[in-house]
Amino acid sequence: MKLSTMFSSNCYSSAIAIHRKIPPSPNVLRASALSPPQSLKLSSRHSVSFNRPLFPRNSTYSTTVSASASASKSDGQSKGGESFLRDTLRSMETVYLNRNPTAKSILELVHSVDDEQICYDHLAFRTFGVNGYGINSLASFFLDYGYTQKEELRFPAKKLKALWFSPPNSLSQDGGSGVNGPLPRIFISELLVDQLSPKTQEIIRKYAEKSGSGNKYAALASALGSLTWEKPLYSEFQQLAGESEYAAWTLVNGYALNHVTISTHRLKSNLKNIKSLNQFIEKNGFKLNSEGGILKVSPDGLLLQSSTVADSIPFSFSDGSNASVPCSYIEFAERLVLPEYKNLPESEIEESHRRDGFEVGNADKIFESTSKEQLTRRA
Questions:
Q1: pLDDT-based confidence at 116, cuts 50/70/90?
Q2: 158 belongs to a structural domain
Q3: Is 1 a domain residue?
Q4: For residue 372, what are the CA distances in angstroms to 36, 248, 378?
């Protein structure tokens, strides 16, 4: 299987479709957050070919947005609405894959063993909880396209909160991989800016103000891989990194996908067992996030998660400084069957029979995939 490092015509069409859906303001998207490097030097073990998309687009997904797309909701969602939603997710995914060679390589590696359907459990985003730039700035898009808000999670030590959203019933989900498969859950976290030091607050608020109405175009910014504010000074990035790696990450990555998560139990090979998948990934030379142990297990024992250490990418700051900054990573999740359905034949088990939702303890450790400690360990 070969991968592509360039926007496909499909993704270009997605960006155009989003522009038509939500006209950008002059203050929005003036600077690109992180431009993909000119070349990605991987070892031969991790080598990737860049000739065709990882997940070929299903021909049933048209880039044409129906006039009723914005009005579609849940079960009443039209094909046009779902098509536009998937096109947007596809553009977000393309930006993510272009910037993160580890994610590309691992997806290709899993495909080499399990050459069927790779489904995403969830997509995750980070936001600043200030001036309308928090969870709601992204959530509004997903709610408009049929997603349903679920539980809130709190992370006091990290000064974060998060909400997750369950997907609508999909009209087309059989046989597709990635964003062409079953619609993923959405996990959006928010930094509680007012709990940070005055100096760090001042920097975050400064760039939110410079963005103008950029929070209205969060989904567009994510799909284009652009910041809605200007590039920061290197000294400002360092100030944020010293207090909150989450804050520093968000300053230079904006609304870009923080990670995608492979749903391991939906695989067909022995890799459906997350412990086997972890061993397979490490055997092939990739570093997994070791915070709290490689495998993160919920108290009920039904949600198992692990993740790689984030990739790093060159970033040019507004003062001319160039430095390597953390980008994104890939996660793995196995959801076990709920006790009340344990006697069901395996052939009858559906996603609704498995453990749903998220766990604060697991998520708290997964956040560390972009931390300096984990990145140093990777190096």
A1: confident
A2: yes
A3: no
A4: 21, 11, 10
Structural domain count, the chain: 1
3-class SS letters over 15-59 = HHHHHHHCCCCCCCCCEECCCCCCCCCCCHHHCCCCCCCCCCCCC
Q: Are 229 and 34 in contact (CB under 8 A)?
A: no
**Weakest-pLDDT range from 9-23, 59-73, 102-116, 120-134:** 59-73
Count CB atoms within 10 A of the CB of residue 212: 16
Does 47 reside within a domain? yes
Find the DSSP H helices in 211-244: 218-224, 234-243
Enclosing domain of residue 89:
9-378
CATH number of the domain bearing residue 247 = 3.10.180.50
Residue 124 lies inside a defined structural domain of this protein: yes
CA separation for the pair 128, 134 (Å, rounded):
5
Q: CA–CA separation, 290 vs 255, rounded Å? A: 26
pLDDT beyond 50 at 48: no
What is the rounded end-to-end Cα distance, in angstroms, of the chain?
A: 28
Give me the pLDDT at residue 164, please: 98
- Tell me the average pLDDT across 143-159: 97
Cβ–Cβ < 8 Å for 120, 154: no
For 311, how many CA atoms within 13 A lie in the half-sphere containing its CB? 29
What is the Cα–Cα distance from 343 to 338, expressed in whole angstroms? 10
pTM confidence score: 0.81
| Cβ proximity of 193 and 129 under 8 Å | yes
**Helices (H), ranges, the chain:** 9-21, 79-99, 101-113, 135-144, 198-210, 218-224, 234-243, 245-253, 274-283, 360-366, 372-378
